[in-house]
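User: I'm new to structure prediction. If I give you an amino acid sequence, what do you actually give back? Let's try with this one:
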Amino acid sequence: MKALLAALLLLPACASAENFDKETRDFSSKNKAFRLAVSYSGTGGAGRARAVLTGAGGKNISSFEADRPPFSVTLSGDGRRLFFFFGAWGQSVSIFGVDVYSSAGERLASHQVRMDGPAGEDFSDDNSVYALGTEQAGARAILLFDVKSGRLLWNKKFKERLAGLKFSGDGSRLLALFSVDGAWRPVIYDKAGRELGRAELKGTGHLAPRVFSRDGTAFELWEDRTVFNEKDGYWHARLVKKRYFRLAAGGIEPDGVKDFDEEYR
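Assistant: Good question. You get back a string of structure tokens that encode the predicted 3D arrangement of the chain. For your 265 residues, that looks like this:
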């Protein structure tokens, strides 16, 4: 009788157990040291998710479930923090917010963030702060998070389109590159969100922030263009210039250009 009762009690639990078999997505940290495999019980943002975090050599670190399934996940370079972007997706994507998890699967913070997708993002080298650019229906912003707690440090709104973000080596300064009416505008902020300097660049190809010195006083914008390669007869996106800048008392000043055009002719 006891065995029968135990079996009956077990049946509902088994029947209600969620199956995470609708879809599986893989996400990796930028340095490829950590990988997160996410399985979904629903589609298009419905249901729940099961996440498995692995490290070097595929060693299992943790396995946990999330109430809000992520469209995408950004992992810190040390694997200790996971930023889950949740929302709804199908023919289009709408992100409603960000949940910040520890590597053990504890949800540390949750933020409402409306966007179609990240317009740029970067972690500081020491993984202490995380910058996120957002864009939705012409509304644009940069958000800065404290990685350890998941707390939002500041949120700045902009009209200009964000083209990239890059932290200085020590994480004390953030370089934001904006695209403004065919021109480019690099702006440097400190960790409190105060503007330290800006510049205006015209007559260049596509630019992206690639290098920012440790002390936040010098940076590089790399310029690429579609270049015809005579050897193979195809057009390729190529690095054609490295543009150097420094932060001076009067703002951001140019500090030289390295030209790579000759290599692709």
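You can read the tokens as a compact description of the fold. Here is one thing that stands out. The mean pLDDT is 91.
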